[in-house]
Design goal:
Helix content is about 45%, strand content about 10%. The protein is an alpha/beta fold. The strands form 2 sheets. The protein has a 4-stranded parallel beta sheet with strand order 1-4-5-6, with no helix packed on it. Strand 2, helix 2 and strand 3 form a beta-alpha-beta unit. The longest helix has about 40 residues. The termini are far apart.
């Protein structure tokens, strides 16, 4: 009887502890959401002369950031939709005089699609200035110490090329290294540890399992990745080179090849 009472008491303690932890967690989420919503509803008075700063060292997210991240991070990430919406609104807002975009060595890595979304918004901003009088046209400037000193600057320059002017330090570098899509093949590694993967492919271009079942590229696998790389490379060059012409030809090189 004593053992049953002890087990019963311990169970109640554990149950009560989990209930308390759950209540605190739910309460914390509710409070954080309330704080975020309250901050979002604050309307700050916008001065009559404003320059928007697009800081590309701040991560851009396609989904809403976590409320806890907003509370704990002094530089919380931005929503891609919010940036696009702000640029669209600023293009005709009389209080906005222009946009300055800055890059840095700590610029967050982003998918090419995100860079393209922002670049398209910048180009739309420029297009809307054609309908403005000369005194009301808003400037678009990009500024950086270097493009790709600590890595590949192709995506950074791709976005910067959409702006009216690009300012870079005289000692800065323009590091345009092209593209690469690395693949790791683990067949021999798995064999050494006695693992035999049993996977199935449907036709030669379905190669997601090749990294486990092959020691290198099959012709179809290489062809698929090469075409994908070439397509991405062509998009970067077409944008960074101003839309085509001599810049595109020079960027491709004498053999006409893209990424490798």
């Amino acid at each position: 009887a004593m053992f049953r009472r002890t087990v019963f008491s311990t169970g109640r303690i554990i149950k009560g502890t989990f209930a308390t932890v759950g209540a605190i967690t739910v309460g914390g989420i509710a409070v954080s959401q309330y704080v975020v919503m309250k901050e979002a509803k604050k309307k700050e008075e916008v001065p009559s002369n404003v320059v928007l700063h697009l800081d590309m060292t701040i991560p851009l997210l396609e989904t809403s950031p976590s409320p806890f991240e907003n509370l704990s991070n002094p530089r919380p990430p931005l929503r891609l939709h919010s940036v696009i919406k702000a640029l669209d609104h600023a293009a005709t807002d009389e209080r906005v005089k222009g946009v300055i975009c800055t890059f840095g060595s700590d610029t967050a890595p982003l998918p090419l699609a995100v860079w393209q979304e922002v670049r398209s918004s910048v180009l739309a901003f420029r297009e809307k200035q054609k309908d403005q009088t000369e005194s009301n046209k808003r400037f678009l400037w990009a500024s950086t110490d270097t493009f790709g000193e600590a890595g590949d600057g192709s995506a950074h320059f791709y976005l910067a090329s959409a702006f009216d002017k690009i300012y870079m330090q005289p000692t800065g570098l323009l590091g345009l290294f092209g593209l690469h899509l690395p693949n790791l093949f683990m067949k021999r590694l798995l064999a050494k540890i006695g693992v035999e993967p049993q996977l199935f492919n449907y036709f030669e271009y379905k190669n997601a399992t090749n990294q486990f079942t092959h020691e290198g590229f099959t012709p179809a696998h290489r062809e698929q990745l090469q075409k994908m790389t070439d397509s991405l490379f062509d998009q970067l060059v077409a944008g960074g080179g101003g839309g085509g012409g001599g810049a595109v030809g020079a960027a491709h090189g004498p053999d006409g090849g893209g990424g490798g």
